[in-house]
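Ops channel
N.P.: pipeline sanity check, posting one input/output pair.
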């Protein structure tokens, strides 16, 4: 059995290892991001590596940056930026294929935060994408709702509940104010009204998860529908059909044999 002081020394070594990892890992991450951003030659003193490593590090850097950009977006999933949600827009910004001023819900504060993150000058908000303003939520005029479910399908965070041919309602605490449900309504019974509160970082975090759940559900339903609509597998091939002539010959032979046995029983003396 090891002495007590040995166990204490081992625990101390584990603690020191954790501290070293805590200090070293952020430096390693910055090093990898720097290699992907400025080139492996300048980062590693001119050491030549395979191009596939450069491509891999570039992907790692882009994903890390997309995560940080996505954390700054409001997660309203309004698509006013021209992308199908906040995450695709964040990936486009990280790849340098989209400007940082296309998010009306984020406003000037969001643009300033994105500019500081990606180290680019702040741009004025692109007003063609919409204008910033107070948080709005959808409200359904229940007396005119026909239960078509089109608004339910349009909501990116599943904030509308109801059933086919039954009245729908909006969960105001879940609604992001994206107004994507307004246009599909065939009877114009949906209006955007002031929410009476501000959109918070906690709202954004919850909305992000609800949008992920929504996308997963849509993907699952699409897969189920594709499986149901898939053509049925061809039936197993049946046994080959015997030629009609051969079948007739066998029938004739069987009949003649039966007749011969019958005659033999009636005239046993002739056999």
């Amino acid at each position: 059995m090891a002495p007590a002081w040995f166990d204490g020394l081992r625990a101390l070594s584990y603690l020191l290892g954790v501290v070293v990892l805590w200090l070293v890992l952020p430096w390693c991450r910055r090093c990898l991001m720097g290699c992907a951003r400025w080139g492996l030659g300048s980062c590693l003193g001119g050491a030549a590596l395979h191009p596939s490593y450069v491509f891999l590090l570039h992907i790692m850097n882009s994903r890390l940056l997309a995560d940080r950009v996505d954390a700054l977006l409001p997660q309203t999933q309004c698509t006013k930026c021209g992308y199908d949600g906040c995450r695709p827009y964040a990936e486009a910004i990280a790849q340098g294929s989209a400007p940082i001023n296309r998010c009306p819900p984020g406003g000037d504060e969001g643009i300033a935060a994105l500019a500081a993150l990606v180290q680019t000058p702040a741009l004025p908000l692109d007003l063609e994408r919409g204008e910033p303003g107070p948080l709005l939520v959808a409200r359904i005029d229940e007396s005119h709702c026909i239960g078509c479910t089109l608004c339910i399908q349009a909501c990116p965070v599943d904030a509308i509940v109801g059933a086919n041919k039954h009245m729908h309602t909006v969960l105001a605490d879940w609604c992001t104010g994206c107004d994507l449900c307004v246009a599909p309504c065939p009877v114009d019974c949906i209006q955007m009204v002031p929410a009476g509160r501000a959109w918070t970082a906690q709202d954004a975090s919850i909305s992000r998860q609800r949008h992920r759940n929504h996308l997963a559900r849509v993907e699952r339903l699409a897969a189920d529908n594709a499986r149901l609509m898939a053509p049925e597998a061809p039936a197993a091939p049946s046994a080959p059909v015997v030629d009609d002539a051969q079948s007739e010959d066998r029938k004739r032979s069987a009949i003649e044999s039966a007749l011969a046995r019958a005659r033999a029983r009636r005239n046993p003396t002739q056999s």
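N.P.: looks fine end to end. Helices lie at 4-38, 40-43, 51-72, 86-95, 107-118, 150-154, 201-229, 244-266.
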